[in-house]
Design brief:
9 helices; Rossmann fold; five-stranded parallel sheet; about 230 residues; alpha/beta; two-stranded antiparallel sheet
């Protein structure tokens, strides 16, 4: 059976990196709402054209449209082995709609990467991104270090820079917004046996190990595809 996993976590928790790594290890597609939204717009699908019209007006894409784009993506054959969801759902309403979309499929496993605010602030105020493509700098490359000045992005060759909004005041406000917006979503999922809280304050490799162990343990218990790609 398929392995379906949602990744949750605050800014700086490493959620995107861990979702990418897990998807590669398991050999199943990662679905990012930003990516599939851009793809739907580029492909001029019916739901993509609706999204483009909303964005062209300078408005936020509605839950209805986002859910429609996710549904369109879930109908493709390459999700037969499972999916990794990154950036969706963001609200309880989206989570409830996702439950409907997943009816008849293997259960959703929810990975919640938890990191103390002090560590998140430290990470975000020292992180670097590529000035050309926006990719995160490799782990261990911090703002102000001699190595950072000479390093180049492995994807495009660009230089690494610090984001203007990666200062302590802005970072703390972003974390407050995340907590306010995401706490109801975490509460929606945390009573489920498939909810996997992960200590994200450890090294990226250790966090990856813990995620794989937690997901595989639940998958084996539930009789779903924990061994995919192994």
């Amino acid at each position: 059976m398929a392995l379906n996993v949602i990744f949750l976590g605050p800014p700086g928790a490493g959620k995107g990196t861990q979702a990418d790594r897990f998807a590669q290890v398991k050999g199943i597609p990662k679905i990012s709402t930003g990516d599939i939204l851009r793809e739907a717009v580029a492909n001029k699908t019916a739901i993509g054209l609706r999204a483009k019209a909303i964005m062209d007006r300078g408005e936020l894409v509605t839950d209805e449209v986002i859910i429609g784009i996710v549904k369109e993506r879930l109908d493709r054959p390459n999700v037969a082995k499972g999916i990794i969801l990154d950036g969706f759902p963001r609200t309880v309403a989206q989570a409830q709609a996702l439950d409907g979309l997943m009816a008849g499929r293997s259960p959703l496993i929810v990975v919640d990467i938890q990191v103390p605010d002090a560590e998140l602030v430290r990470r975000l105020t020292s992180r670097l991104v590529c000035g050309q493509c926006g990719s995160n700098a490799p782990a261990g490359l911090a703002a102000g270090s001699p190595a950072a000045a000479a390093a180049r992005c492995p994807k495009c060759g660009g230089s690494f820079v610090q984001r203007a909004d990666d200062n302590e005041m802005v970072v703390r406000e972003r974390l407050k917004v995340y907590e306010k917006n995401t706490r109801p979503l975490v509460e929606f999922y945390q009573k489920r046996p498939s909810f996997c809280p992960i200590d994200g304050s450890q090294s990226p490799s250790r966090v990856a190990e813990m995620i794989e162990m937690a997901v595989d343990t639940f998958a084996i218990t539930a009789g779903v595809g924990g061994g995919a790609g192994r």
